[in-house]
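Quality-control log, excerpt.
Job 1 of 2 completed; input and output follow.
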Amino acid sequence: MHKGLGANIISSENMEVVNNQQTFAQIKRILNNHSTLLDAYGLLEPIILGLFDAQRMSIFQRRRQHQDLVARFKTGKETLEIKVPISPMSIAGYVALSQKAVVIDDPYNPALLQSIHPRLRFADKFDKDNDFKTQNILCVPIMNAGVLMGVIQIINKVSGGFTEEDLKLGNALALILGDKFRFELGGTNNPFDLLVHKSLLDEATLNDIQSSTPDIRALIQRLVSEHRISEEEIGNSLSIHYQVPFIPYLPDKYHRFENESRLNVSYLKRNYVAVIADAHDKPIVLMAEPNNAALLMEIESAMGIDSYEIAVSLPSLILQYLGENSGGGGPGEMSDILDEIGTSTEDNDDQVDELSDDAPAVVRLVSRILHDAKRLNASDIHIDPEKNAPTRVRMRVDGVCRDMNQVPNSHHSAVIARIKIMSNLNIAEKRVPQDGKLAFRMNGQLVEVRVATIPTVAGEGVVMRILASGGAMPIDKMNLAPNNRARLEEMIKKPHGILLVVGPTGSGKTTTLHAILGYLNTPEKKIWTAEDPVEITQPGLQQVQVSPKIGFNFAAALRAFLRADPDIILIGEMRDKETAHAGIEASLTGHLVLSTLHTNSAPETITRLLDLGLDPVNFSDACVGILAQRLIRTLCSSCKEKYIATETDMAFIERQYGHAHMAELNIQTPLELYRAKGCEECGNTGYKGRTGVHELLGMTPELRSMVYKEASVADMKSQAAADGMRTLVQDAIFKVLKGDTDLAQVQIIGGD
């Protein structure tokens, strides 16, 4: 009796195994008979749910060359497609990232989820939308040849919770699905199989190399050196296998991600990992072996980033991104350079300036400062000495200075000397200010820098202005108000006269002038420019660099231009009476003259020029218009926050714009404005980039009459407003209503 009972039990267990084997065989047949999983899904769903005694399931497939999963099918008709990033922010994403199966008894229990991963969350949106309650989950990664292919998620086991047996079944099912997914994605069994398929290498040789050379860097070096296989071919083979893009060494396209400093460089080099970013600062984790889930999770956790891409590259190329063997002698990371300098300081406490100006660390430090400034689009670099304290390195980004680094005080002089040598300045002279220029190459582009040294009580300070490079800004990109745009185009179409662009240093005057020249630059026009320095170049222009040291100043250049048959002349700046007189005379003799002046507003410019001794009649006849401008910070498009304007905001807008002109703004109530918030994109400042605000004064007959009489600035301002001029503050208000900036920036312009 007992023997018979035992036989029945064994028979029952064997029967379950046989049934499972039969089920898996059926699943394989269905998959083989259909070209894609999507086609087979309708037949597979009831079989798989019966296998696990579950209510629902989702099968996520990895998208080719992407860092996310897609389930294009789900039980029921409610959801047709779900996209899930491969990250710990969701259960399927975590399983894909970690490549570990999980059983979750209660997904609504936050403590349970956080015990698996601190950032693991359960998205209950689908439950709410479909009137469904997820009670338990079995989630298994779908792998093939060590590469993630997808994830299968089984939901709500009918008879209690998921068991170890279910986990084994899930892993067995994942193996079957993995074969199908690899076929669909066009993957390979081996990272270098594509080389064999292309007959660049035979299989036996590949096996021999792989068995005798376990280190991935040495293995690839053998493929390149011994078998003459290009890096691109190897990269493509890796890309096909790992299902991620291949990125070669492209320093002009990618740079090291700013948050990468949280990771130890030696750790990155040892594991052949670099975290890089594109022009939009989107992070990309570059790995020699992207299937290393444990390594990827360490990096993801250390950097604290939620959204990133994964790509594959060769170890030697990854090391180049990390500043090693770059061939161009890259400056290396700032932290490494400062560590080197700091170490040498500790070893030589009794010495001062133990590093000379040509010491490798100093050379790399200055190079790193210049490269960082260009990468951040900084306009200026300030190297400020401090008494008995480290030297501060600051950079002006979007008009605001930021503290970047500190250099040990003992090495200040060496850094200054290095900059002077690069700028061809006298390193022995430390008592008087000096001016010079230097140039460096970054990503193949020549970058010019204007250098000024100033002696202070704490030592020599240096200010470096990074000169604009490249072509002119199109006039469409100047963000002119429609009224200003129409009036400016009318002014510059005149055959002769003088147009002045005014504002403080760094307000974008040169950029504006070149935008105007770009608009006027046609084959029918001969255009001469005299600039100091020539920052922006345009084809079709004859551009001249003035040199006051040899007597070739703006006035001399202008006189030379008049003998060279010009139509349009640009004079960099009207610094003195001689240049101003020459400019007026040129405009009165049939030429369109463009120039700049350092004044605060358009009406004040008239008074300033008359104070230089210009004839009021000649100036009023010659002048076609004066454009005053400033640069204000623009809100970060990624994080700017919408809100309803308060009564205080409305009162401020009306006060600043003027009650008489409010109707032209056509304000709708409630008024929606934007304010700064802060995110990673903008360095948590809430602002990214700058835009111009403009004040355009046109010379009308009424205003000319006032210039004749040398009227007050206030009277001329009132007349200009009546003629259609809107002030800098009024234009800034217009930009606020557009959503470009916020009221805080208006207050900076208006001083209110």
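Job 2 of 2 completed; input and output follow.
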Amino acid sequence: MEKKYQVFISSTFDDLKEERQKARDTILSMYQFPIGMEMFSAADEEQWNVIKETIDSSDYYIVIIAQRYGSIIEHGVDKGISYTQKEFSYAKKKGVPILAFIINDSVLLTADKVETDEIKKEKLKEFKEKAKTGRVVEWWETGDELARKVAVALSKEIQKGKRPGWIRAESNVEKDSVPCADEKIMKLGMKKYPNLLAAYNDIVSDITDSTFFDFMGLQGANFLRDSNNLSLAIKEKSNLKIRYLVQYPFSDEIRRRLENLPECLNDDDLEEKWRTIYGNIKELKRECYVEYRKAESVELRYFSNPLVFRLLFTQKHLYMNYYEKGKNTTQCEVYRYDYDSPTYETYQMYFNNIWIKAQHSLPTKKITAKYSFLKDRYFQVTPSLVINVCADCDMNCSYCPKEKNGQKLGGENLKSISQINYCNMQAIKNLVKEFSKHILNDRDKPILRITGGEPLFGSENRKRTMAILSSAEDYNRIVLCTNGISFIKAYNENSRLWEGLKRKMLLKISLDTLNEEKFQILTGTKAGTLESVKNGIQFAAKKKFRIELNVVATKENVSDLEDILKLFEFSIQNHLVGIKILTVNDFGGNVSFEQTIEEQANISQKLEELIEKLRLKGYEEREVFLNDNKGIKMKRFVCHYVDPGNEQDEECTLTIVDHHNSSLSLTPRRTFSEFCIKCKYYPKNVKKDSGIKPCATGVMSLTLRADGLFSPCRLLTDSENAINISNMKPAVIRSSMDELLRKYDRCWYES
């Protein structure tokens, strides 16, 4: 049985409006009910009974405290304290679990958000002490940080399962088994219907007696049918103000919703379903501006927020039903709330907030391409610059691509080491300089990524790496990919340069396991190498470098998920940025690895199991995109902790990137440009469960191979799409680079 929980949010009023909104949106996205203080008049004593009843029916109480104490009660037994403190005391008295979120004292706020009255300052100090006593307090600095911490703290409390909540009664559940349900329904002013059809007559009646009708949902298709009374009531009602808020059809959220429907078994079904929805949305637009002639005003907007529920507002009631995974919404239960209930007020504010931010129009371009709903042509890509310093490496990892004879290929060049003639060093430095100028002038701040082979293996490779780093003063972000074995030696050889770049550098260090035996199998190294890697990591961590571990998911290390969790614990203990788990990239199925499609699917399954383990442990869950763009979607979990060294709140992340394209793949289809579609390595008409994943390398970066070949993709060697910069002057490099970068102007992403 699925429980829902009501969460009361309390704070001072004017100074924390934005922060309360973020907290409300977070709770709503968790499929729970936030009750905001906006529907109460804090200075009106007559409202206190309503507030008490609302707290009584709430499962959790959240108090947000900043640097204002708030309005003070002037009469009665609570004279001298603020209304916020009064609510807090009542929640404590009634035994409602309290989650306290207090702003860090170091945060600088505008004068209007800081208490100036000395008496109130002292009262605020005392209130903070009361809020901290007997519970864990979360400290925050920004609204976004507050929202994240609300999500984590509330999830942990809900997992304890100690609150009654209210239960969406199923047909096979006896009424007596959920004694809390009726009580909750009465307190919330709620009525329940088995489905949307059962609620139609009441909705029609409401519209007849209302002056406005607000709708939020997927497509609004149920209101296009002339045969149903609801559609007729809307069209025939004069002087009705109508607002339709429907899903933006090209958003990632609509793809998620469709993929969870049982009728979408493959890409063709997905495409057909989407086209139906897109057609309904366009028809709704036509209906709004052609058929609704009697309405006083009609407006249609498009939102991209997570698709959680359908909302229908009339002057009398709110009707709401959830979008349940794998279930048609017309079959889902509908809940009705009275216009004067806290729930109505809360969701109306939620609707209005999204309405303000929603898009007013759809793209006018004709939709013709297959899988067109996955393409967002209003998305622009800024590539990073990748420099492959060398081809050789002091490891022989099992997951690195091999030739048919078993000989390892030269790093990112994907060709035999013996065939590689290294690029002129001066040309590389010229490229680094010219790329930074172009990006700084025309695009976002540049990212430089240095890799290999192993860029710190051997004195010559280290010299080349140091020369590149010394040319990178204009870069705001530098990523160095290394196995960590030679980092201590490299640092000691040129400590001044390393220290100068430390604040903008991220060290990406490969470490697939902490198990010595598995490590030797995976890396082809001798005993003791693992210890050298760990020493390098710990040395860099003590020097305050930002470090992220790269973990390649293989059958060896994901077979025991505790092995992965130990890596995460190692990262937390050493105060690293975190770890990133990646599956091998087969470059569109054109590079052979020692993994079958079945093994890839098994790895994806194990990563799903890992996600469940991390959820159970209560880590904050996020979805993010690689390289700060919409190229590759990743699943991220965050461990929040306090660094005993500086007593500051810190976080360590575990990120999962699944390149496989099995039915269990976590990563959806990735970013493509016009260039990528034409690429010979891009498989045409790839089926979702074929085991082949189109490569997105060319959209994420411009890559310089160790042999001097510069292109959007390391696999390309043809003169049309790749240039050799080995003997080029800076001006020629600049013009050639400009030509390549123009291919990024019309990128989109397939989600």
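Post-run check on job 2. Residues 168-187, 369-379, 661-672, 686-693 have pLDDT under 50 and may be disordered.
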